[in-house]
Amino acid sequence: MRIVCNNQAPGKVIRDMSNAIELVGVCARHGAVAVLHDLTAAVAAQRITALTGPNGSGKSTLLGVLSGVHRPASGSVRRTHARRPALVVQRSEVPDALPITVRQTVAMGRWAHRGAWGRLSREDRAVVDRCMERLGITALADRRLSTLSGGQRQRALLAQGLAQESDLLLLDEPATGLDADAKAQIADLLAEECARGVTVVHATHEPEDAAGAHHRIALSEGRLLAEVVR
Ligand SMILES: Nc1ncnc2c1ncn2[C@@H]1O[C@H](COP(=O)(O)OP(=O)(O)OP(=O)(O)O)[C@@H](O)[C@H]1O
Q1: Which residues does the UniProt record annotate as the domain ABC transporter (predicted)?
Q2: Would you say residue 163 lies in a domain?
Q3: ipTM score here?
Q4: Which of 15, 36, 202, 220 shows the smallest number of beta carbons within 10 Å?
């Protein structure tokens, strides 16, 4: 294990083509609240990176910056990944009352390819079926999301992320609150995606969930505490 940095020179430019994303001096805010402070870090391409830190340390905000959904207040974000990132949000962020089935949830992963109003092609439907099968949720396809357990709902969201067929998969707390078997299955799935050449980043506040990662970005109160490469 190698600690790469914990107090980099401000504004240092990383510029390494083996990185999928490089952040230099990134500050991010939610309205008036400053959340990320002068963050310089890199996400290694085709590796698994864990974002770790306690609740409120800025992991979800950093995932938002990495996905491009959250625009930094200052600093630069350089990307080498080719496709639109797939962001799998925390399952607690999906409203209980959302009246959609598991199949519809997974099919939303194809919107990046077809648009929300485009008809799914035969290939899209095959991708949706394959992703449900990989997550073991085919039998749940016609169930409303709101009727599922937390673990089942997590699988549906993961299947949606996989259905995007992106080369950058970002996941917010994918294993939090799941039992040991479900955690192991998700860890295997992330390892499979990585082996296929996908860059995987997942946020967790449970240190044991970061065990399978090649690279760890540890945050504390929105600042880089350490960047560790295995
Ligand atoms: N929409 C928002 N408006 C104002 N402040 C926000 C908003 N979203 C997050 N914050 C604040 O930003 C800080 C970082 O939140 P963030 O969700 O990024 O942390 P986190 O490490 O992902 O937390 P958790 O592990 O609880 O999900 C927290 O202090 C939080 O209260």
Answers
A1: 21-229
A2: yes
A3: 0.97
A4: 15
